Amino acid sequence: MGGLINIMNLTCIFCSIIQKDIPSHILYEDEKVICILDKYPISKGHFLVIPKKHLEEFYEVDDETLASVMKVAKNIGYKVAQLYNADGMTFMQNNGVFKDVPHYHLHGFPRFKNDGFKWIEPNYEPTEEELYETFQSINNLFFNIFLIAFANL
Fold first, then answer.
1. In the chain, which residues have pLDDT < 70?
2. Measuring CA to CA, which residue among 68, 118, 52, 67 is closest to residue 90?
3. 104-21-27-38 Cα dihedral, nearest 10 degrees
4. How far apart are CA 86 and CA 108, in angstroms?
5. Is 105 a catalytic residue?
6. Which of 60, 95, 111, 129 has the smallest number of Cβ neighbours within 10 A?
């Protein structure tokens, strides 16, 4: 595990949990990820899947590690939902200023009808013209990325 630690990680609570310097309730662990119960749960069974490699943002996570995170979240989530007879599950993660810990992690928590959890959406209803403009902007971005990739072949 020593190869995964760097100076930035000395103050990362998740890196400390991964190193077993801070106790946690570990539900699953392998060479790529650790899955723990959230200390401040939204509902009973709320868990976090955390890559062992210190990565702050979703965009920094390599595809292999991301696949491991998703596989573990899927398998643990399925069993937790069954255990608590949940009406559904929510899986979410935040980036940038919206994350609570500067180490990428995925939340999974059981949901129940009338559980009080709210996803409050802003009052934003784009016109068809705005949707098309957004589509064109994103589509052009990807087109340019593909042009650059093919030019480097």
1. 1-10, 144-153
2. 118
3. -60
4. 12
5. yes
6. 129
